[in-house]
Amino acid sequence: MSRIVVLGGGMVGSTMAIDLLKSHDVTLCDLNNERLNTLKKSHHKLDVIALDVRDKAKLKSMISPFDFVICAVPGFLGYETLKAIIEAGKDVVDISFFPENALELDEMAKTNNVTAIVDCGVAPGMDNIILGHYNELMTLTDFECLVGGLPQVKTWPFCYKAPFSPVDVIEEYTRPARYVENGHIVTREALSDCENIEFDGVGTLEAFNTDGLRSILFTMSHIPNMKEKTLRYPGHVEYIKVLRETGFFSEEPVKVNDLSLRPIDVTSTLLFNEWRLKPGEKELTVMRITLKGKNSKGQIEEIVYDLYDQYCEQTSTSSMSRTTGYTATAAANMILEGHFNDKGIFPPEYIGKHENCFRFILSYLESRNVIYKRKTRIISDK
Q1: What are the Cα distances from residue 102, in Å, to 107, 113, 117, 118?
Q2: Distances, alpha carbon 26 to alpha carbons 17, 38, 50, 316, in Å
Q3: CA-CA 20 to 30 A from 86: which of 34, 96, 189, 379?
């Protein structure tokens, strides 16, 4: 049994802490005392500590006695928090999805004898792990990931709910989307190339460009075609484009009477209640990963992994928390059980290349009823 500290007590962070309680001593840290006390009342074995991770000295002191760290802080705090964890010499799995390049901390992690797995959620995360696995088995030419978290009940106008801050969602809608086509990185505006695609159990969804490839743009640059698209119910993109083009996502202050306000702050405040998942509100996660290339027999083969996951009524756990959080706790247990002990910064595709790690994580998820269904077909024999 190891001592683990989870930094960040939001929906996903608290789900990870509860999952890890099954086998470990767990402490959950967050700035919100009320949230911590509520979780403590329902999970008596869970230890809680109020902490502001921006206080680097206090953060390093607090994590010092622990064997392992899970980092689930908001993205804007992620890079500096991960850096402090590495400076403290602690192995870590990170799902803060910060915009900075985590590989810049690789030498520091090696110097401090730290194993750090970053971007270890559902996407980025499991899609990278699956890609890394098949990159070892095939000469890949194509990779595509379609993914989205959606409410089970569609409510006008956006037909969307988010388990995290609207600011992070809006970032997906404004940051230019990069993908790889014929060996070249192509940059398009977010929300572009919208297409309708059918999914079992859900029906028709919109798929549109977002900047979700992250590390694999560079670690898998030998693959000539790679793309990630976000999924929403039909109609969502049009409403978001109206807000974006009208300036509601702008960070430039505007004068309203005697007040100077950033439109993005007003929009985020209004959307917080509109998009917030209420306790017990049912939602689902849909993901389709498609890989194509030449297999060991010289055949052109296509492999498709489909995920359809719903809110768990038995544990009152959101699907996005399960699919994201359990990938991270699987990786943590994988390290703690000695299946992976390399030192440095590792995006998930570097984990998937190891057969034992790939099987461990899939098995861990399956034991929690997060099921990736696989199908293959031979496109041509030669």
Answers
A1: 11, 16, 10, 7
A2: 6, 16, 14, 20
A3: 34
pTM of the model: 0.94
d(CA 182, CA 194): 20
The answer to whether residues 319 and 309 touch, using CB atoms and an 8 Å cutoff, is yes
Question: What angle in degrees, to the nearest 10, is found between the helix axes of 166-174 and 263-275?
Answer: 120
Q: Which of 57, 14, 16, 65 is nearest to 35 (CA)?
A: 14
Strands 283-294 and 139-151: antiparallel
* 175-192 core/surface letters (b: 16 or more CB in 10 A; e: else): eebbbbeeeeeeeeebbe
Tokens at 178, concatenated: 């990069």
Looking at the fold, whether 300 and 325 belong to one and the same domain comes out as no
The verdict on 248 and 363 lying in the same domain is no
SS3 content of the chain, % helix, strand, coil (to 5): 35, 30, 35
11-34 pLDDT, tens digit each: 899 999 999 999 999 999 999 999
Residue at 114: amino acid letter: V
C-alpha–C-alpha distance, residues 77 and 86, integer Å: 15
Q: How many residues are there in the chain?
A: 382
Considering the domain architecture, whether residues 162 and 290 belong to the same structural domain is answered as: yes
Q: Directed axis angle between helix 166-174 and helix 236-246, to 10°? A: 80
